[in-house]
Each structure stands twice: as C-alpha cells, then as structure tokens.
Design brief:
heterodimer; A: 265 residues; alpha/beta; Rossmann fold; 6-stranded mixed β-sheet; 4-stranded antiparallel β-sheet; 10 strands; 25% strand; globular; B: 345 residues; mainly alpha; MetI-like fold; 3 domains; 3-stranded antiparallel β-sheet; 3 strands
Chain lengths: 265, 345
C-alpha cells in the first residue's frame, strides 16, 4: 500500500544545466583540455566519448572539482558554470559543490561497511542521524538504483559481498542518497558483464527523469543506447557535439566518423 | 617396437653444477641462521628456566617475580650452606639472636625483578603512546594533507636520518634536553620521550605505508559525496590503516622494551627502594626514575663481580625479558588479526 508512496521521487529536485565556457585545463605544463565550449541541458544524459587520453575523464572531474585533489592540476582559462554559478569562483566551497554534483567511478568503490551504511554515508557526514529518515533514504535510494529487491534482506551485510554489477548500483544508490542535481559517471560499466551493464543502462534511463547525467564511456553502443547528447573528444579538444542519433548517423566531422566507425581509436 | 631414447634425460653440465652449488650454499646459510637463533634461545631458555621455575609447588619462583633485587648472603649454619636475601638474613639473625654471622655477600643476586618488569612495562606503554600519537599524526599529514614541495622532502629526509641515529645518541639527546634543559631529571617522562623519538621514524614510515595501502577509491568516493578531508580520513581511511599501523608498532614495542642506551641517562636507576606506585603525589609518578629489565641485565652482567650467583640473575632476567617481549608482540598480533578480520576489503 505504501509502495507507491515510498518510490515516489523526492520533491522538487531542481535540475541544473552545466555550461562550460572556453575551458583550458592543465596538468603541470601539459595542457589536457583546449578551449572546451559545451552546454549540458537538464534532465538529459550527455555522453562524452573519445579514445583514451582524450580528456573526457578530466573534463568530467572538472565538473565536481575532483581535479582539485591532483596537486599539479589547474584551470588555465575559462569557466564551468552550474546554474549560472562559476564553480571555480572565489565563493564556491568544493565540499558544498560535491554534495550537489554526485559521482560514480569507473571502478566500483563501495566502502567496506554494510550496504545500509554505504548508502547513508553522505548523510552521516552531513550529521543526519534520525533513524526513520535514514531508513527511508536507504529504501528510496536502493529502489531508484534498482537494487532494493536484491538486497532488502541483507542491508546489514558488507557491501563488498555483492557482485560487481550490484556494487556499481550500490555506488549509484550512495550517490543519489544525498539528492544531488547532477550525477557524473566515469565509465560506470567498464568492469561489468553485459547483463550487469544493461541493468545499469536501464537505470540511467530511469534516473534522467530526476537528475542531469553526464557519462564518460568507451563503449559507443552504450553512448548510442542511453544518451540524448554525445560529445566527441580527441586529443583534449571537443571535436563535435550533437544529438546522439545525429552524431552517430550523420556526423559533421570526418574525425568523428572515423572514430565511431572504428577506423581509429 | 623400438623405444625412443628419453629426450628429457638428466645431463651433467657446468650449469647444473652451479645450480646445486648455489642452492646448497643458500640452504646452508639459512640453516646457520636457524642454528644461531636456536643457540641463543636454548641457552637463555635452559639457564633462565632454572631461575624462573622451581621443581616443587608452585613450580614458579614467586620470589623472583614479587620482590626487589637485593644482596645475597651466603653463610654456614649448623654445618649447612645457606643462601638468603638481605631482608631474610636480618630476620634470621634476629630470630636466632645472633649479632653477626660471617657471610659472603653478592650484590643483586637475591630477591626478584618485579620493579624491573613494572618499569619496562611503564616505559613501553608511555613511549608507545607518545610515539603512536605523534607518529600517526605525522603520517596522516605526510600522506593525506601535504603536497610535494621542498619542506616535505626535507621532513622526509629528516625522518630517514633519524632512523639511522644510534640509540646512544638519542640517550644523550634526551639527557641534554629532557633531563638537563627541561629539568625533568632522570624520570619516566624523560625516558618516555627519548624512547618515543627513537621509534618515531619506524612508526611514521610504517603508518604512512599503511595509509597508502588504503585504496584511493575510498577517499575519492567519500570526497565525491561532499565529505571534508578530515571526515574522509576519520571514517574511511584511518580505520582501515589501523591493522597495518599496529603491525609496525609491534616492531617498535620490541625495540623500546629492549634498548638500554636511551634510558641509561634518562630514566633508569640501578636500584630503587620504592615501587613506582609508591609516590607521595600523583604528579611525582611521572618524574620518578624506574628500574628496567635491559638495564638490569646490563648491571648484573657487567657492573658487579661475576660469579655463579649473579649468573642466575642474568639468565633469569633475560628469560623473563624475552618472554615479556614475545607476550606483548603476541598480543599485538592477535589484536591485528581480529581487526583485519573485522575490516577487510
């Protein structure tokens, strides 16, 4: 009876759109991104594709300032705006930013804690302790991550006991438990088998109703299946960005065509 | 049907000869190490057991574990040779109402080593606490917070150099700084800090290794959820590094318990007439000198005339000392295994 109530989306998660404006990015003396201009609309899935080392993961990590952790990383020029706010501006706290911009990593990284504690980790560090709230968040997040039915009887067992695909969905549940507006996914399926991959892809399709999603992928079929927009990167430059079906069927650039048809990369 | 000659047949060659020579040498070397270790442990075990254990109930030499070291008196009484400690000799004279009995005296050869055991335990506890607090803090700073710049490289160089400093130099340093300059005198406090500084490099280096062994994904996952760095360290890094830190502190414990040189001028007395807990004010506790097992072994082995009576003390003390260090190490190993089991990834 309560089923519908509990699975109902959290009220009024305002979707954000991301604008990247003439962004240059450096690791020390090495320039990793050249003059990137890109807008990612709310409630859409934007896929970043391109060969290894083309800067797509770097760009993704610029969006929640995870690059701050790399000592030599720096923005040379340009802005990244979320909701119109320059996230590298002087009054931006990366801690607050990361609460709003969640991230799912390439290698699933559940903490060596129980499934329950994994999901509520983000709330615990915010100081939320009310048991009923936490219980509710755990159920909602796991349902949204399509994991609830598989783990509801063993919430207090270690998250590391789950299969690879389940672990990745647990990481997604952990990211959405703090109700972010944007979810960044860094090759979330690269370590998963095809069945687990398709589950995560279905999940991405569901999640875009609630969140703006940016996904880095090596798998072009995946980009084609689950994204609305695709951006193709090569050697730190944005070559082309378009609606996904347009980019895959009728790319404007020769380089894009060569890449998606498998002639290089 | 003709059987083919075996193509894999063993052939003599120089390479084969060198192979057996090398493996033989390596094997003999290893066995020699084993032999040396066995000699040391068996000698101390055999000779020490004669002091520590008794052939009759309660099978343990209780006097050895419950009394202070005292002077041994050996004298003739009614045609028999009698051995007695200082206190008992006096009581004996009073009981038999004799002024004096001609006796041979041997310093430190009677009584027990209780104050030494207590002293060593106190030194280990205090110095390891200090070393762990300082060392783990430094390791967290070095591995989690600091960025690679010249000061950091200088700190690392300093830590490495500190590890190479002979322990007697730490003793002198402690004597100059804590005993002399801080006016702590020869005391537990001075000994604690001297020993703590001595093991700091070991603790820092291994705590850093333990922190580095925690997967980067735990940190990133936590930070990406909006945790501060300290929240990340406290909840998602340090708990998983603790088993590794404990492993390394086992080495530290053995070293702190065993070193004589650092406490020579800073904490140890040859003999004290009070136990450490017999202090007037609680603050006096920290500023009193103590007796310690390694220093006691040093004293009974080289500072007093040697004879068959002192030898019993030497081996008895060494035996207890070894057993104590093994016990502490065993405790840490068990603790580590239990933590590992609980915090596995």
């Amino acid at each position: 009876m309560d089923e519908t109530l509990k699975t109902a989306p959290p009220e009024a998660v305002a979707p954000a759109s991301i604008e990247i404006d003439h962004l240059d990015f450096f690791y020390g003396d090495h320039q990793a991104l050249f003059d990137i201009n890109l807008a990612m609309p709310a409630h859409k899935v934007t896929a970043l594709i391109g060969p290894s080392g083309c800067g797509k993961s770097t760009l993704l990590r610029c969006l929640n300032r995870m690059n701050d952790l790399v000592p030599v990383a720096r923005i040379g020029h340009g802005q990244v705006r979320i909701h119109g706010t320059d996230i590298y501006g002087p009054n931006v706290d990366p801690i607050e930013l990361r609460k709003r911009v969640g991230m799912v990593f390439q290698k699933s990284n559940p903490f060596p804690k129980s499934i329950y504690e994994n999901v509520i980790y983000g709330l615990r560090i915010q100081g939320r302790t009310k048991r009923s709230d936490l219980d509710e968040v755990v159920e909602r997040s796991l349902r949204q991550a399509a994991l609830w039915d598989e783990v509801k009887d063993r919430l207090h067992e270690s998250g590391l006991g789950l299969s690879g695909g389940q672990q990745q969905r647990l990481c997604i549940a952990r990211a959405i438990a703090v109700e972010p507006e944007i979810i960044l996914m860094d090759e979330p399926c690269s370590a998963l088998d095809p069945i687990a991959t398709s589950k995560v892809e279905e999940l991405i399709f569901e999640l875009k109703k609630l969140y703006t999603i940016v996904i880095v992928t090596h798998n072009m079929q995946q980009a084609g299946r689950c994204s609305d927009l695709t951006a193709f990167f090569y050697l730190g430059k944005l070559i082309e960005m378009d609606r996904t079906e347009k980019l895959f069927t009728n790319p404007a650039e020769k380089q894009t065509e060569d890449y998606i048809t498998g002639r290089f990369g | 049907m003709q059987t083919q000659a075996n193509p894999f047949q063993h052939r003599q060659s120089t390479v084969r000869f060198l192979e057996s020579l090398a493996s033989g040498t390596i094997r003999v070397g290893t066995y020699l190490v084993l032999l040396a270790a066995a000699c040391i442990f068996l000698t101390i075990g055999y000779k020490g057991a004669q002091t520590v254990f008794t052939p009759h109930w309660p099978f343990v030499n209780t006097e050895f574990f419950t009394e202070k070291p005292s002077t041994l008196y050996v004298f003739e009484w009614e045609g028999k040779k009698v051995e007695m400690s200082d206190d008992r000799f006096r009581a004996f004279k009073a009981a038999h109402k004799v002024e004096d009995i001609p006796a041979e005296t041997y310093a430190h050869s009677a009584g027990g080593i209780l104050p030494c055991i207590v002293g060593t335990a106190l030194l280990v506890l205090g110095s390891m606490t200090i070393a762990l607090v300082l060392g783990v803090s430094s390791a967290i700073y070095l591995s989690e917070y600091s960025r690679d710049w010249w000061l950091l490289r200088l700190i690392r160089l300093a830590i490495m150099n500190l590890a190479g400093v002979p322990s007697i130099v730490f003793g002198l340093f402690g004597f100059a700084l804590f005993v002399g300059y801080f006016k702590w005198n020869v005391s537990l406090m001075a000994g604690w800090f001297t020993l703590a500084f001595m093991v700091l490099p070991v603790v820092i280096t291994s705590a850093e290794e333990a922190l580095k062994a925690v997967p980067q994904g735990f940190r990133e996952g936590s930070l990406a959820l909006g945790a501060t760095q300290w929240q990340t360290i406290r909840t998602n890094v340090l708990p998983y590094a603790i088993p590794g830190i404990l492993t390394s502190s086992i080495l530290g414990i053995a070293r702190v318990a065993g070193e004589t040189a650092p406490i020579l001028f800073t904490a140890a007395y040859v003999v004290l007439d009070r136990y450490p807990w017999q202090v007037a004010k609680w603050t006096d506790f920290f500023f009193q000198p103590v007796q310690a097992l390694p220093y006691h072994i040093y004293v009974v082995s080289s500072k007093i005339p040697q004879n068959e009576y002192t030898e019993r003390m030497q081996y008895g003390t060494a035996f207890v000392f070894l057993a104590l260090v093994m016990l502490i190490s065993l405790g840490s190993v068990i603790l580590r295994i239990r933590l590992r089991h609980k915090l596995k990834w």
